[in-house]
Amino acid sequence: MDLEAVTRIVQVEDLAFPVVDYGQGPAVLLLHGFPDSRHLWRYQIPVLVKAGLRVIAPDLRGFGDAPKPASVDAYQVSVVAQDMIAILDALQVVQASIVGHDWGAAVAWVLAAYYPQRVERLVSLAVGCPGTSGLRTIEQRERFWYFYFFQFEGISEEWLRHDNWKLFREWTRGNGDMERYLQHLSRPGALAAALNWYRANVKPESPTQQHPDFPKIKCPVMGIWSDADHYLTEGHLRNSHEKIEGTWRYERIKGASHWMMLEKPEELNRLLIEFLAE
Q1: What global pTM score does this model have?
Q2: Can you tell me the distance from the alpha carbon of 223 to that of 233, in angstroms, rounded to the nearest whole number?
């Protein structure tokens, strides 16, 4: 579908966010991750609307057509969570279900933990809840090599762009919306803004560094992992039950990469409608 036709501009203080706002009924907030935009959800939006939901899908700061502040700290997940609350307020949405993928899932977990009154249900695609044992395995640490590579400001940008984006193409395995990614990331300042998500939230630190315990999640949660994901292990998401006090449902989608919503849309849509309509 033509998402531009159902996109509006929502002002959050001095920042203007493009936001899909389509349909009527209970609200569901769709949050994309790196290096996507609201267009990631093009196969889900019409189906969810047909199922009787109001779909809200913004470009998160640093991505797509959203604002791209220069400060690294502007991309902290806690800051982006405040963007989402402000967008819901502007759209007069008191409570919404949230579907998050990649960094959008990290934002979704924070919203469910720290703004529980605003979150009815949570669906996390690929990414587990912070603070679980699934994040600390050697396999997951090996898969997260790029988290630390992206800390090298300027150098990682050069490597990703080099030789017609060769490393970027290899790292994504050609999955996702490649041509859209290259179009968006080639804009001035866009690649640095996208990488600032990693620099703001995954700073190298001592193993003895102490952090506050992540709050328990009290709303119903569904986690969905795809078995050809090159970045997240199954345990990363499956072990989320350790931090959930509400109901927990876990599903696997076979034969899809990290971008299950593009490769297995019918299967994902069925699971979303089953869970969100309960």
Answers
A1: 0.97
A2: 13
* Single-letter amino acid, residue 24: Q
List the structure tokens of 56. 């809200």
- Pairing of the two strands 54-58 and 15-22: antiparallel
- What distances in angstroms separate CA 179 from CA 69, 174, 186, 209, one per listed residue? 24, 10, 11, 40
Tell the burial category of 107 from Cβ atoms under 10 Å away from its Cβ (0-12, 13-18, 19+): buried
Domain boundaries, the chain: 3-276
CATH of domain 3-276: 3.40.50.1820
219/182 Cα distance (integer angstroms): 37
Q: What is the CA radius of gyration of the chain?
A: 18
Q: List CB contacts of 182: < 8 A, sequence separation 6 or more.
A: 165, 168
Could you read off the pLDDT of 188-236 as tens digits, one per residue?
Answer: 999 999 999 999 999 888 888 888 899 999 999 999 999 999 999 999 9
Among the listed residues 60, 44, 151, the one whose alpha carbon sits nearest the alpha carbon of residue 104:
60
The closest alpha carbon to 20, from 35, 36, 32, 38, belongs to: 38
Question: Distance of CA 211 to CAs 131, 205, 208, Å?
Answer: 10, 11, 10
Quick: pLDDT tens for 39-56: 999 999 999 999 999 999
Rounded CA-CA distance 132/243 in Å is: 7
